[in-house]
Protein 1
Amino acid sequence: MSSSEINKNEVDIVIGALNADLTQFLNSWKPFFSGFHLIIVKDPELKEELNVPEGFDVDVYSKIDMEKVVGASNATMFSGYSCRYFGYLVSKKKYIVSIDDDCVPAKDPKGLLVDAVSQHVNNLENPATPLFFNTLYDPYCEGADFVRGYPFSLRSGVPCAASCGLWLNLADLDAPTQALKTEQRNTSYVDAVMTVPLKAMLPISGINIAFNRELVGPALVPALRIAGEGKVRWETLEDVWCGMCLKHISDHLGYGVKTGLPYVWRNERGDAVESLRKKWEGMKLMEKSVPFFESLKLPETAVKVEDCVIELAKAVKEQLGSDDPAFTQAADAMVKWVQLWNSVNSSG
C-alpha cells in the first residue's frame, strides 16, 4: 500500500517530544509525513521551547494544554515517554501511528527509504491470524499466502488491533543487557510481518507502533511507572506493560496483533551503565507480571475495551498490589485513564 492509497483523514501521527529541536527528525520524515495530521506532545518536564519546522499539518500540545483538558492533577500521568498517550487521548482518527523522536526512516536491503506510515496502515487494514500460525508469515502480504493445511474456515482472519514495528541500529534492550553488550547493534532487516499467536505475551515497544484507535484505543494505557524512571527507553516500562495489557485485551475481544515490518533507524541515546546506577526495578516487576497475565481470565461480561481495562486494573490491585506499590499505582492509573478517555471522548 502506498501513501497515495491511504485515506489520510483516518490517520494521526503522534510524536512524544522529549527533545526540543525536532527539525532534523521531522525533515527526515517529511516524504512520509506530508499530507498527514501530526500531533506533537511536549514532555511537560521539557523546559525549552519546541522547534518545529514549517511544512507540516501539526497541532502541538504542552503542559498547559494537558491541564486544560485533563486537569492539573492528572497531567502528571503524561510525563516523559508517557506524554505520547495524551496524543492518543485527544486524537479523533481511526488509526494512530507513533514513532519516537530519536528515530529516522530506515533503508531496506535495496537502499530505499522505508515508508513506515504506509506499512503500518497496511498491517492494520488487513486481517490478523492469531488462531492458527501461518508459516509463510502474514498471508495477506504481497507474495505470501496461506500454507497447505491452513483451515479455510480461519482464512478470513480477525481485525488487526496493533502493528508493532521494529528498528535497526540501537536495539531495544533492557538496561542490564545493553550495559553488558555495549557495542551490539541490530543490523538484520527481516522482510516479514507475522501475527502474534493467541495467548502469547509480548513486550511491545512504543518506539515504532501503530494501532486501531476505534478498536482498542483505551487499552493503550500509561500506567506502570518504575522508581528512577528516566528519559531513555531502557529506564521505562510504560510501553511494555501497556503492550501486555493490549495483547490480553485483544485476545479476549477477538482481535490480533502483528509484529515485523516496518523498520525505523534508531539513533543513539543515553548511557545504559549510568542507568543501572539508578534504582532500576524493571526486571523484578516483569518477573511478577508474567505469571499474572498467564493466569488472568477476564470475565465474559467485559465486552468493551473500557470494561476490560477496569477488570484488569481490579485484578492487578487484588493479585499484585501487595507485592509492590508500583502495581497498586498502575491499577489506579488504569482506572483514571478510562475515566479520562470517556470524559474527553464524550465531549466531542
Protein 2
Amino acid sequence: MTGWRSVTLAVAACTISLRSAFAGDAQVFSLGLEDVLEDVSQLNHTLPTSSYVSESYDLLSNMTTSCTKVQAVSARTPDALKLQHFREEDDWKNSIALLFLSLETRSKMPRMVAAWLRCYVMVNVVYFLTGGMWAYYVYVCWGDKFFAPGNMPALRDMGEQIKVSMLSMPLYSMLPAIAEHCVEQGWTRAYSRVADLGIGWYLAYFVLYMTCVEYFVYWMHRGLHDVKIGYKVLHYIHHKYNKEHTLSPFAGLAFHPLDGILQAIPYCWLLFFVPMHFLTFELLLFATGVWTTNIHDCIHAKVAPVMGAGYHALHHTVYNKNYGHYFTYMDKLHNTLFTPEEDEERRQQRQK
C-alpha cells in the first residue's frame, strides 16, 4: 500500500513538473512540489522501513533543489528582465506625473488605469503649456510682424478649439495606455534599453519606424478625406477651422476623439512589427502634441522638406493637398504636394 502511495505521489510530482514546464511557471512547480514533498516526508516518518517512500522522498528532495535553481534562472531570462525593466520604467514615469498621489494610492491602482491617468495629465500639460506659450509669443509679442490686421484668430475661435480638445483628451489618453499594457505583456517588439540592441541598431530601427509612421499617417489622413463618411462624421470637426484667421495653436488637438486616435494608431501598431525603444516611442507620441501646435499657427517658416505651418494652412484652405505628417516626401511621391510658393504665385496671377 505504501509503495502505491509513493508511486502516486511521484506521479503527482511529475504532473506538476510537466504542467509547470509547459506553462513556463517555475514558481508554480516549486510550490506544488513542496506540498507533495511535505506529504512524503510525513509518510516517511510514520513508515521508516518503507524503501519505496524513502526513495521517493530522496527523489523529490533532489527535484526541489533542481526546481529552486530553475526558478532562479527563470527570473534572469532576457524576456523576463525586459518586461521587468518596462514595469520599473512605467512606475518611474507614474511617480513623476502622478506625484500628487501617494505611493500607496498609486500602488493600489490597476496598472492600465495608472497609465491612462498619467497620459491624461501629461497630454493636458503638453497641450496647455505649449499652446499657451505659442499663442502668447505669436499673437501678443510678435503678432504685428506675422499677421495683417484682422488675420489673427479671435478668442472665441481659440475657446472653441480648447473645448473640443478637452472633450477628446480623455479618449486620446487611452491609446498610449493600451500600448503600454501590450508592451508590459511582452506582445510587441519594443525594447527597454538602448544597450539591448546598441546605438547603431537603435538609429536604424528609428529611421525605419519613422519612415513607416510617415507613410501610414499620410494614408490615414488622406483616407479621412477621400472616404466621404470619414470626413463628414469625423474629420469635418477639425476642418471647421478652414480659414487662416480661425486657425490657432489650440487647434492642434481639436479633433473628434476617434479621428485623433486613428491618426495616431500607426505609432502604436508598428510596435508589433518594428523593434522600437519604448521610451522613445512615448516621447514621439507626445511630441506630436507639440508638432500639431506648431503647424496650426499659419506662419510659413520655409523649412522644406519639413511639413511646416505654411503647408498645413494650405491643407485647411485647399482641402485635398498636403496630408503629410512631419515631411513633404509622401505628398511629393503621391502628387498631393502644394507649396506656399505655388500658392503665392497663383494669387499673384489672379491679381493681374
Protein 3
Amino acid sequence: MPGSDSTAHKSKSRRPKYSQFSQQELPAFKLILTPGYVISTFIVVGLIFVPIGLISLFASETVVEIVDRYDNECIPKDFRDNRVEFIKNKQTNKSCTRTFTVPKQMKSPIFIYYQLENFYQNHRRYVKSRSDKQLQSKKNAAHIRECKPMGETDNKDPIIPCGLIAWSLFNDTYGFSVKGKDLKVNKRDIAWGSDKNYKFGADVFPKNFQVGDVGGKSLNSSMPLSEQEDLIVWMRTAALSTFRKLYGKIEDDLQANDVITVVIENNYNTYDFKGTKSLVLSTTSWIGGKNDFLGVTFITIGGICLFLAITFILLYVIKPRPLGDPSYLSWNRNSTPTPGR
C-alpha cells in the first residue's frame, strides 16, 4: 500500500529532528567593528599597557647590575695567541684578580651569576646525554645507556653522574673582598627545590666522576647529589646559547663606590669553541632581575595603540565614512526557518 511505503521510508530516514541547535541557528552575538568599537579598544589597551610598561621599566632601573667579562683579561700575555694551550696545561697558574667599583648601593641578597656565550646547551646530543633514573636512585647506578660517550670508565664501571652535561660542569671559582674584608658567598638554596627533592636522590653519591678525561668540576664523593647544588643548577640546561646560571649569593650590603676585588680561578675551557665568560653581580626587584625588554615592549604596544586611536579619530572627523544599515545583514533578517528546508 502506498501509505505503508511512505511510513517505512520515514522510519528509515537518518535526517535528525529539526531544531535550532542541530541546524546551528541559535541566537549569537556578532560584533560589528564600527569606528566607536575600534577606537575605544585601542584607547583602553593603550591606557592599560603604557602604565604597566612604565612601572616595569622603573622596577628594572632600580636593579643594580655589574657585568665583567674576564675570559680575555685572565689570559697571560705570553699565551694570548694560544689560549687553548694555556687552559689545558695543568702547570699554568689560572689565578686572576679583577677589580670593579659598585655604581650604586647594592642591598643584600646580591646574586652572583656566571654568564657563558656561544655555549649550546640545547644541542640535541648534549641534552640527551644524561640519565635521570640514575640521578634519582642508587639502584639505577648501571642505567647509563643514554649517557654515551661519558657513561662508563675504561674498566666498564658506571660513571655517576654520567653524561656530557655533568661531565662539562662549570669549574671557575670566585672569591670576593671589599676593603680587605672577605665576603662570604652563600651557595645554599641556589637550585630549584623541586630539582633537589625529586630529581636528585639523597642516596646517590658521585662515583668514578671526572676520571680520565676531565671536562669540568669534580664533585665531593661523600656528599649526595641532592646537596650538590652547583651540579643541580648546571644540569638544568639553557634554551639559548647565551645564558646565566646562579653561582651563589652575597648576604652583605655593598655601598656606592666600594671597590670589589675578585680572585678568579680561570679553569673552564671556553676557548676551544670561541665562547666567552662573564661574572655578573645583580640585585633584584619585585619583577625579578634587570630586564628592560618587558617594560619597553608594553610601552611600545601601548604607544602604537594610542597612535592608531588618534589616527582613526582624525580620519573619522576629517573624512567620515557612512556606515551601512546593519539590518540588511543575514543574521538580522526576520526570516522564519521551516523544518522542511
Protein 4
Amino acid sequence: MASGVKLYFQTEHGVTLSNDAITMVPLEGEGKVEDRVIQLYSKLVENSAWLEAVSSADVILWATHSQGTPVSIMLLQKLLERGHIHILRQSVCLLAMAGISHGPFPSLKGSLIVKYFEADAARELFEFMDSNSPISLKFRQSLSYVLKSGLKVVLTGSMQDQVVPLYSAIITSVDHPNILRSIYIDGHIYSKDDFLINLILFALRLRNTGLPDYDLLTHLSEVLAGSLYALEGGHSTIYEELEVYMTAVRYTFETAPFGKYIRAFPSSKNQTPPARPTPPSSSRKTSDSTQLVSAITEIEAKLEPFLAKQQQNPFYLPWSMHGICSDPLILADEVLKDDLRKLLTLFEQWNPTSTRLRELKFRLDPIRTIKLS
C-alpha cells in the first residue's frame, strides 16, 4: 500500500513523499475471527508509536486479505467506538482483497485441508455462508457501522480465485455508496474483447453505479473458480499486484472530500439514473464536499439476507440477463446501453474452448433473442 501511495503522488501530483510521511502498522495474528480482533487490538494499543500514528494520521489506508476482511471490519468498529480513529478529521479507506465475507466455495467444506490442517479457524469461515449465523450477524453489524461512520471500502475479488467466490469477495448482499467493487484479472488471461471478462466488468459497473445486477455476479462466481492445485493466479497473487492498491488510493484521493468526483446512487426505481461523476465548480467544491461527507455518514447500509448454495441453479443466468436488459434505469443510461450492445456482439463472437465455458455459453444462449432499441 505504501508503494501505491508514493507512486500515486509522484505520477499524479509530482510530489515525492518521504519515508517518514507514511507509518506502516503491520498487524498479524492467528485463530478464529473474534480471537484475532482481540489479539490485534491489544497489539495496536500496546504499541504507543503505532497507536499515536493511527490516531494522528490525516489519512488511514487499511489493506487486508481473505479472513482478514471480517477481522479488519470488526476491529475498525472497535477503534471507532473507542475514539482511536476520528472520522470527522480523518479519511479512512479499507481495501479488502479476496475477502471471505460470504464464506469460501461451498464445495470446499469437505476438503482435507479444512478438516485436518486449518482446524477451527478454517471451519469457522464456512459459517459466513449464512448471513444469519452468529459470526455473520456480528460481521454485518460491524460492516454497517463502519459504512455509516463514513469509511470508504474497496472490495476486490480475483477472477481465478481457488478459495473465495467472487460474490463473497465483493459482498453482493450489501449496498452502500461508500463501497467500490473491482476485480483482479491475471495478465495472461486478460483480453479486452473477451465476452466473459466484459460481462463481469459490466455487472460490477452496475453495482458501482447503484444499480442491480440481478444476481448475475453470484451466478457467474461458480464458473470462475480456479484450481486449488494451480501454481499461478487466484487467491494468493491478488495482493502482489500494485494496481490493486492503486485502485484504493485513487478512490481515497479522487472522490470527496479530497477529489472532484462524487458518487450518487438512485434511491428508488422511479428515479432517473445517476449522472456520471463530474467535478463541481471551484467555488462550491469545499462546501459541497463537506456536505456530501456529512450526508454519507448518515446513510444506512442495505443488507440483504444471503445463503450460499452448493450448486447454483443454471436456469437463473438467462433470467439475470433478461432483468438487466429490461431494466428501465439501465436502458435510460446511454453509456450502459452501449455497453450492453457491445456485450451482445461479443457473445456472438465468443468461442470458448473449455468445457466449463462452453456450458456457460449454452446457458446464456437465450440472450441472442434480446433486442435493444
